[in-house]
Amino acid sequence: MNKHTLFTNVRDYYADLVVKLGEAHDEISMVYLSFDSGEWATRIGDALCSRALSGVKVRLMVDEFGQLLDEPRHAIRNIGLFRRLRSHGTQVNVFRPASPLHVNNRMHCKFAAIDGRTVFLGGSNVGDYYTTWTDTNMRVDGDFGGTFHNVYDFLLAHSQGEDAAARSFETRELPAGTDKLFLTLPSQRQDIRDALMQLILKAEKAVYIRTWYFLPDEEMLKALCEQARQGVQVNILFSHETRVRPVDFANYIHAHKLACAGGNVYRYKGKYMHSKAAWNDHGDVILGSANLDPHSMRLNFESCLQTNDPVLAWELRRAFYSDLAHSPRQTPEAFFRRSATDRAITYACNLASPWL
Questions:
Q1: What is the dihedral of CA 248, 251, 256, 262, to 10 degrees?
Q2: 3-state SS, one letter per residue, for 220-233
Q3: Which of 39, 62, 185, 212 has the fewest C-beta atoms under 10 angstroms from its C-beta?
Q4: Is this prediction's pTM over 0.85?
Q5: Per-residue pLDDT tens digits for 46-97
């Protein structure tokens, strides 16, 4: 039976990751959008170097686009960081698909697999600035075999342009101990979206979603609205401000429609709220790298773990309500109290939302 340990403090998450990396015996596979030079990248990097010098197979993959843009000011420092990792035996790969620097088909996965028994996953990449954000991460202990290491191989094959046969493997329900790992593969699979839709429709009393971006497609928004109309508590918490301002305008339309249907929609106004998790009253939980937006559901490489754990769902619910202290509710009337200019920008951004 898998054991799930939830982290709502990013520093605690990183600290636990450093400890567990130091206990690796055979293989470490880490996949992140970005691995940014700073205190925590140095501490995690030290652990990777130590294990690599001890004979452990250590691999780190970052996305080319994400590494360049997540914190551009550290570009030179990051080159030095990767040079040091490589010199100590860590295999560092840059995910670079057929169309470099294209906004689609990015590698947005975030996990660190240690041997076949421990995996860290959630919303956080590696960077000191993430410690100032609100995020949701998890350590899972169980018997995963080579599942996460195989996903690393799969992503690496895509990046290196190997033929389709070498890059293909059955991904619909990857075994992850007693849990399931779901992926989004651009133009191939939308398994995370399908699993999220099932979680929403299965809810009888309540469903909760935390997400950095809130831009559900028409079918998913319709499902959320219908559940709310039928008396299910539909609770959505997303970041009022993100790093992509058009998204912050566009989501007012989606939130307004759900609020009018009776859903509870909250806009987190702390620093940033970067969580990516969903759960329902049956204890079904999905947690990982995917936001509720077109890129995560269809266009990026994403990974999420699905489990049934009522205790984990309760812990997520407790954190959800704790964060409502910083999260005003968007009422049906709130949209029309915004200025005419803001509403015009909102409508324009909403038209572009499938591409944001």
A1: -110
A2: HHHHHHHHHHCCCE
A3: 39
A4: yes
A5: 999 999 999 999 999 999 888 888 787 888 888 999 999 999 999 999 998 6
Higher-scoring residue by pLDDT: 215, 185: 215
Beta partners for residue 107, in sequence order? 301
Q: Where are the beta strands (DSSP E) in 205-269?
A: 206-211, 233-239, 264-268
Q: What share of the chain is helix, strand, coil (3-state, %, to 5)?
A: 45, 25, 30
Q: Give the rounded distance of the alpha carbon of 280 from its chain centre.
A: 18
Query: Pairing state of beta strands 284-288 and 302-308?
Result: antiparallel
Answer with the residue of higher pLDDT: 245 or 15: 15
Residues 152 and 224 in one domain: no
24: three-class secondary structure by DSSP: coil
Range of the domain at 131: 3-169
What is the distance of C-alpha 156 from the center of its chain? 19
Give the CATH number of the domain where residue 228 resides.
3.30.870.10
Helix (H) or strand (E) holding 256: helix 245-260
Residues 52 and 113 reside in one and the same domain? yes
Name the 3-class secondary structure at 278: strand
